[in-house]
Amino acid sequence: MLRLLPALLFLALAPPALAQERASGPIVVELFTSQGCESCPRANRLMGRLNREPDVIALTYPVDVWDYLGWRDTFARPEFSQRQRAYSRAMDVRSIFTPQLIFNGARGEAGARPDRIRNVILELRGEHAAHAPAVTVIENARGMRVHVGRGAHQSEPADVWVASYEPGPVWADINGGENAGLRVPHYNLVRRIARLGEWSGAPVTFNRTACRPACAVIVQAHNGGPVLAAARGPARHVDDDDDDEDDD
């Protein structure tokens, strides 16, 4: 397992001039972590720091890769491990490891590289996705409405995901394995991720039950591909009879 440098706890975030919202939407940072990973608690705390950035959606996915070492991760779900494996296949990474950070579904970094983590975020802030769709998440009396606006025509439809998470910190008391005796925090702990449907460039709306206590919507190429757009939700409360139509 990888060990994080102590400096990770003191990751220098970008100055205000670089912290403005990108035209292409928030940066999605996904952490794959495990309660059985000695280096992961520091990476978990990093997510709490990144989540305070207005242009970053930070999501934590516990996986079961180290359960055999003597402690079963109490938050891990099979679909989180499947998501990490999809990224590994897409990026041609042969082994699964933690802590692993995935940026916008297209770039991976080990948690032991705090300098690279900072640099990747700075680089992504300087990028502007052409024809990225606007994503809005609205809650009403019926539940939640997700709208993905018009964008570039897709040769293959993209997936629209919704991740339900607890902002945290959510604590885990660990009684075995490499972190035995520790109380480990989790920030933006994903409890469930579900596929809403497809987006192919034309505006599309999905209705579903509201997610609690918080959620993020991710528009992403198939099979662990790049993130095309994302949004936190819900954005606002509306009347039950609010119009569902949107031409953007």
Q: What does this protein look like?
A:
The chain is α+β, with helices and mostly antiparallel strands and about 250 residues long. The protein has one domain. The protein has a four-stranded mixed beta sheet, sandwiched between helices. Strands 10-7-12-13 form a four-stranded antiparallel beta sheet, with no helix packed on it. A three-stranded antiparallel beta sheet has the order 5-6-11, with no helix packed on it. The longest helix is centred in the middle third of the chain and has 13 residues. It is globular, with a radius of gyration of 18 Å. About 40% of the residues are buried.
Describe this protein with a few key phrases.
248 residues, 4-stranded antiparallel beta sheet, 3 helices, 13 strands, 33% strand, disordered N terminus
Question: What's this model, at a glance?
Answer:
With 248 residues, this protein is of the alpha+beta class. Helix content is 15%, strand content 33%.
Write the layout of secondary structure elements.
Blueprint: E1 27-33, H1 40-50, E2 56-62, H2 78-90, E3 100-103, E4 107-110, H3 114-125, E5 135-140, E6 143-148, E7 158-166, E8 170-173, E9 183-186, E10 189-199, E11 204-208, E12 214-220, E13 227-233
